[in-house]
């Protein structure tokens, strides 16, 4: 392949632009904010799960407390009724004994219910503390998500602006390169290789390897417009004037 040495030299500029675009893409992909954001979002999910568990438990306990309050109120109503009957006229000794026995039973039942109610209320208070803590953890994690997201978006915007500038520079270089020379360069890049490198003394600028003397002699003996390739990496080897 033949190509004007000036066009070949522009490949070095294109390779540098492509290298910078690669660095920008790598940096964008590996920003520490990505990992920080993923961790903060996981903390939000964990805190939300804790909130749901605490809310569910609190709801169950509230229903238990309400049930016990109804049961205690029912016992108290029966106590008042029995006491009213016991203090009234027309109650014989047997009925009085039965009423007193029921009052004793109701008193014990009321004591058991009130003790159970107190235990559940204490547990409900503890669950309320857990719920407040989980909600606080969720708020902290949500704030961190917002902070990291903002920081990441700022860095990404800067990187995207840099990429836009490099894309523009690339477009300008591509527009003036011969089609066959550019196709050769792009073919190499499609393989994941560096497309072009300068021959610096006896070293390839693309792979940084020392080249064989015989190969170097052959390359340097070719006309300046001959397109040469590195024997090691295959990159277009741009010779200095």
From TrEMBL:
Pfam families: CT398_CC, Zn_ribbon_9. Residues 37-116 form a coiled coil. The keyword Isomerase does not apply. It comes from the Bacteria. Transmembrane segments: none annotated. Keywords: Coiled coil. Residues 203-237 form the C4-type zinc ribbon domain. Residues 14-192 form the CT398-like coiled coil hairpin domain. This is Nucleic acid-binding Zn-ribbon protein. It comes from Pseudonocardia parietis.
């Amino acid at each position: 392949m033949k190509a004007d040495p000036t066009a070949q030299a522009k490949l070095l500029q294109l390779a540098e632009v492509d290298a910078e675009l690669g660095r920008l893409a790598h940096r964008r992909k590996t920003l520490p904010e990505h990992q920080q954001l993923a961790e903060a979002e996981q903390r939000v999910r964990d805190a939300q799960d804790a909130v749901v568990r605490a809310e569910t438990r609190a709801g169950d306990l509230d229903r238990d407390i309400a049930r016990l309050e109804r049961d205690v109120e029912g016992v108290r109503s029966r106590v008042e009724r029995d006491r009213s009957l016991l203090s009234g006229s027309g109650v014989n000794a047997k009925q009085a004994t039965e009423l007193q026995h029921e009052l004793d039973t109701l008193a014990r039942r009321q004591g058991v219910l009130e003790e159970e109610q107190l235990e559940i209320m204490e547990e409900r208070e503890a669950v309320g503390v857990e719920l407040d803590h989980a909600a606080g953890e969720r708020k902290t994690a949500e704030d961190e998500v917002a902070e990291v997201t903002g920081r990441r978006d700022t860095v990404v915007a800067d990187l995207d602006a840099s990429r836009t500038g490099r894309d523009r520079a690339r477009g300008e270089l591509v527009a003036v390169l011969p089609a066959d020379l550019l196709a050769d360069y792009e073919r190499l890049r499609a393989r994941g290789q560096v497309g072009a490198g300068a021959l610096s003394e006896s070293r390839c600028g693309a792979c940084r390897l020392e080249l064989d003397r015989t190969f170097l002699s052959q390359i340097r003996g070719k006309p300046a417009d001959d397109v040469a390739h590195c024997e090691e990496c295959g990159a277009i080897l741009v010779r200095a004037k």
